[in-house]
Design a protein that fits this description.
By secondary structure, the chain is mainly alpha-helical. It has 19 helices and 9 strands. Helix 4 packs across helix 9.
Amino acid sequence: MEEFHYISRNFLSLNEVGRIVENKLQLKLSKEAEKAIVDCRNYLDKKIEKATEPIYGINTGFGSLCNTEISKEDLKQLQRNLVTSHACGMGAEVPKEIVRLILLLKIQGLSQGHSGVQLATVNRLVDFYNEGVYPVVYEQGSLGASGDLAPLAHLSLPLIGEGEVEYNGERMSAKALHAKMNWEPIELMSKEGLALLNGTQFMSAYATHILIRLKHLLKWSDFTAAASIDAFDGRVSPYNELLHKIRPHKGQIETAEAIRKHLEGSEIAEQKKQSVQDPYCLRCTPQVHGATKDTVNYARQVVETEINAVTDNPTVFEEADEVLSGGNFHGQPLALVLDYLAIAIAEIASISERRTYKLVSGERGLPAFLVDNPGLNSGFMIVQYAAASAVSQNKQLAAPASVDSIDSSNGQEDHVSMGANAATKLYRVLENYEKVLGVEWLTACQALHFRQYKTSPSIKKVIDQFRKEVAFVAEDQVMYLLMQKARAFVNETKI
């Protein structure tokens, strides 16, 4: 059984990242990566020794202090000062699964041989990843332009024996961690602090995590929609492939095909329908789900490009004998796509809640709020409220962060992406989407109970599995527990 993923210059796909995470693979630097790191560092040392002109961030101050020259004897202190002074995070702590991805992506970027870091520094980051050491990182602090400075500073603090980490479920100081692991703090060389702090790995990690989760959830959205269509006694004609061939958006075609497949063999679908047309939330599922899928596919391309890029500044080009200062740290490509994703996910959650609303409305032979003796029982009335609340919050969170900018560093950094804010609010949009999808699944299962005819074998199979954890609701009970179980079931069960 494979135990390691080797860091190299080879293209790192989101599928491969998902495989690393799912299989809990440890990391190793390939010989190619080690050589690239060492060669770049050796070149940079020689370059600095011979330098007669200032090189930004190496022998100068940072940001608006870029014209302030730093003496050679202070270069190491300069980099340490950078890490400690930039660790200004606020707000909630970043989830561990995101911190782990930040570590992976930072290792990947530094191993391309353009950042000028020591091999020991990268190896220590690998140690953090493999040993399950999670630096305490905070959500707020990055403007998404000069790299994700504050979050990456918190990620880097433990390298130099500062800050806090979580290890084996225990929160401790970096000093305590070093004592426990018998490690010596890394002494940062010239440029290293800047290489660690510059970069888009904070927002990239959020994007990567969300896209990996979406691959599973989008399948569940189609499956749950099919269950709701049957539960509402909907027509199957809107999913006929002829309709979708003449408007051939890839996601739309895939969704219609998935719904047809899920409804194969349904007795309900085969019965004569009383209604000539269904509401949009059922009839237009391929168009809405499909548009979200197409957005996700575009986002995957952008994010895969980003996680394989070098995004610190300045960057080192040994073969060209150049150390170039540029703007690869600017998060605009990610900020735009993260905002786009927030809108797309908010919409697929919105149409899910609309299907739930129809199911509890007491139409097409279903009892009001999907419970016997409505009035005495409120049934699924407030379950729908909860989904509506999450959807409403998503509408607020879908307002784009990337249209905002703010002047910083005395005007030197005068246009920023706000990609980090786009990333953290997208995470909350995704969490709400999962909750809403769990509610729709719970509701669809309840509604199908009241149908005279049977749903499809594939839907029935999953419902039977679900009923081992959540029974049919015959009368009012504590509902939030069922909602939590439904969400967990959706997250854990493969379609």
